[in-house]
């Protein structure tokens, strides 16, 4: 069985994209009444996807570190390439875990609130997985648009005036961001002549001096598009209204979307502006640090100032991505490892908070608010939190209500406490471990005991202070909300909580607990992922060195020419001259003279055509 | 030719951004459309050898196969994708705009009636 899966390997990395696409397409054939079947298909597909992603993650950590797949069988800079490394695998696993939780939660009620929820959900997954897997800038744009188009539909799911308003703002800002994305991509193509990320990394040190300013402008414009997605200050005012207007499972899924922006910045910035990028080394790092740090402060103050739990979750997402962006900007190996540990734990905690907020809101909802909450669970309390008139809470009734799910209030309260610990970064859960790893890396840039004399600069100290202060503010805000919702009114009845709603919240928190228990292994994994990010020539060599599979006719011709010729061809394919690394001065900008491309076996017309 | 293209991009972007910042949804969608035209033209001008004039991106027998004799086909492929995606997104935005108009009864982007008559002009 394992051997069979291992044989599938280079092709298996297509599955996180193809599986959701196929499922979504199949579900479009089904009529809207067949919700149960769609739900079953969706669940099955997401579960299968999670299994595959977990296998891919194991694969990247054991035999090899990277896999490159060229779907069109063209060598790297010309065709589309997909690359799987540890960072990608980590993001895929987090995506599928959060998606599965959101889906199970939606099965309780929300998936019936509008049409095509399940198809849109799968398309969203496809866009997310594609954005994580692609090794090509324009493909990244296409997957971004798939992801965004699905997210527009999902945000409007459930309808209602607030959602339409929030949806309109969300679409407008994202369309503007897409324009910036296109401008940046086309400028980069105009300057370097390539859209392949690995080839781009190779081309940037060789860019002509006169074009250097233009290159930086292009990178800045492209980066702005991603910073809008990643919610860096001051590009994040759209986030809180949008995310809090969405239905709870969609909000939980959206907690991932800011992380896509962070992922892309982490990936592109370490590839394009690594320390080996010559004059452009670490371009924009101060902007990342500054934007991230202000976003942290803004998010923490926002958390303190918000009343609604969904708003609080939205601001927590801003704090989390601000932390990640600022930590990325330092460009330090150990810090990156810490942030890669912090990323999954904070994402899962914020998703869980969105889900809990829905349960709590429904528990506390007043009758007149006009929210499209579904019918059968009538709210027990009115706006003043007093028992609704005509709703008799005498002893018999109380027993009747309490019998439904007596542990519900305890469960919701405890999971809210877990979320508080995770988001504010208090021990003993993984939020603390992640923050501690980042603090330690900031104060000892080269590792404990070996960094004597190395001082964190003022940005480092500011980051240390912000990490601690934002944690404190988040703690204050969440504790206050917890007191208000769980303690302030001792007479309230138990919340109505279905198993399908409790399960995903518990599962997300359990994942965080597992991350805490397994912190050693996971930190090793993220450390190796960070090492790979900060030495981009591994990535570049893997992508640029991938040879196309010879066509059957060609193979036959080689075999007919005699065994020696076939062996020689095979050997040639195996040790094709190594592709010039980014530090090699011989590769020219367009790369036409680089040996890697000279060794390509088939010269297609398109290849000739693209050569300047 | 460069100056004409540059002016066109500049005027389209300028009017697009101005309209995007207006309070009425109709103006916003017009602004987004103009902005996407500007971006499409911009992509078009971003070939490897700059703007190619009087050159087709199709290979012809007997003509040397390099960018000195052909337009760069890459931006044309990019612009095609960008046009299609931009068109789809504008259509989607239009639907949301109409839904918003229907649910709130006003053309204002925030779904509230404007405070002054002047604001909606």
TrEMBL record, chain B:
InterPro entries, per the entry: CPA3_antiporter_subunitC, NUOK/Mnh_C1-like
Chain ranges passing through the membrane: 26-45, 77-99
UniProt keyword annotations, A-Z: Cell membrane, Membrane, Transmembrane, Transmembrane helix
UniProt-annotated location(s): Cell membrane
UniProt-listed Gene3D superfamilies: 1.10.287.3510
Domain of life from the UniProt record: Bacteria
Topological type in the membrane: Multi-pass membrane protein
Major location category of this protein: membrane
Stated family: Belongs to the CPA3 antiporters (TC 2.A.63) subunit C family.
Protein name: Na+/H+ antiporter subunit C
Provenance organism: Comamonas terrae
